[in-house]
Amino acid sequence: MSKRVFNFCAGPAALPEAVLLRAQAELLDWQGKGLSVMEMSHRSDEFTGIAETAEHDLRDLLSIPDNYKVLFLQGGASQQFAQVPLNLLPEEGIADYLDTGIWSRKAIDEARRFGNVNVAASAKPYDYFAIPGQNEWQLSKNAAYVHYASNETIGGLEFGWIPEVGDVPLVADMSSDILSRPIDISKFGLIYAGAQKNIGPSGLVVTIVREDLLGRARSSCPTMLDYKVAADNGSMYNTPPTWSWYLAGLVFAWLKEQGGVEAIGRINQLKQRKLYDFIDASGLYSNPIAKNDRSWMNVPFRLADEKLDKPFLAGAEVRGLLNLKGHRSVGGMRASIYNAVGMDAVDALLGYMAEFEKEHG
Ligand code: PMP
Q1: Does 173 sit in the ligand 1 pocket, CB within 6 Å?
Q2: Cis peptide before 182, with omega less than 30 degrees from 0?
Q3: Is the full-model pTM beyond 0.90?
Q4: Of the residues 173, 177, 226, 293, which is catalytic?
Q5: Which of 21, 126, 173, 294 is most deeply packed, by most CB within 10 A?
Q6: What's the burial of 29, exposed, middle or buried (CB within 10 Å: 0-12/13-18/19+)?
C-alpha cells in the first residue's frame, strides 16, 4: 500500500484510517452477506440495522435528548440554508442571523430569498477577526429563530460558547465543528452539519431538530425539504445516501472507541494550542483572530511575505503535508485539524514550519 499523507483539507477531509480499512474489508462482502452496502436495498434489514446503529451511536456521542430527531439528509449544508427558513420562518415572520464570515453570509443571502432577515450582529467592523459580544447584538422581539455558524471554516472564527437567546429557537450551522468537543444539544432548536469534515464522506448532511419545530413548514415547501416528512419516514422518504450513512456510522463507532467527544475534545484542544502557540511565537507566521475566538478545527495562517507561499506549499507537499493552501477568497494557508487528523500530523506540520522558518525567516 502507498504511504498515506497527512491531509489538512477543509473538506472533504481526512477520514480515520481504521474506518477506511474497515470499509475496504467490507467492500465486496458486508458481514458475510455476499454484497456491498452500496448494493443493498435501503429498506433491507441489513441497511436498517446500519442506519439505526449510526443514529444510536451519534445520540450517544452527543447525548442527544429524546425530544430531538436525528435526520440523515442530502443536499449538503448549503441546502440547509434554504431548508431552515422554508421550515421555520413564516412568510411574514423575521429571523435573526449572526454574520461572522463567509458561511454565515451565505446562509443570510439564502434566507433572504424566503423572508425577512435581521442581521443582529456582524463581525465586519472587526474585519471578521473577532466575534461581537452579545451585548452588541440587536435581536428582534419576535424572531422565528436565531441562526449562527458555530465555526467559520474559511475565516477560522469559532464560538467557544453558546449564544443566549431565551425561548427563541437557536439554529446552528455546525458543519465544521460538530463532534470536536462536547456541546449541550438541549440549548438548540436545530443543528445541521455537512458530513464531509468530522462525520464522514460528502453527500450527507445531519440535522438534529427539536420535535416541537417539526410540522411548521410553509405550504410551498417542497416535500423533500420538509423536516417532518423526513422525520416521519426515518430519513427514507426517498432513497438515502446509503454509503455515506454507513461510513458515518463507522466514524461514530471509531469515535466511541477513542473515548467519545470528551476524549477527542481534549486532544483537539492540545492540537490547536500547540499550533497557535507556535504561530504566535514565530516571526514568519501569523494568525489575526482574537485569541478567544480562534477555531480549534481550522487554523488559518499567513507567511510574512506572500512570495514564500509557493515554496512553502511545494516543500510541504514533498513531505506529505497536503492541502495547506488557504481558501481562494482569503489566501494564505489553512491547516484543518479535524478529529481524524492526529497529533502526529500536527507535529509533522510544526516540524516543517520550524524548518522552513529557519531557512526563510
Ligand atoms: N457551512 C460551513 C460552516 C461549511 O464549512 C461548509 C462547507 N465547507 C458549508 C456550510 C457548505 O457545505 P456543503 O458543501 O455541504 O453544502
Answers
A1: yes
A2: no
A3: yes
A4: 173
A5: 173
A6: exposed
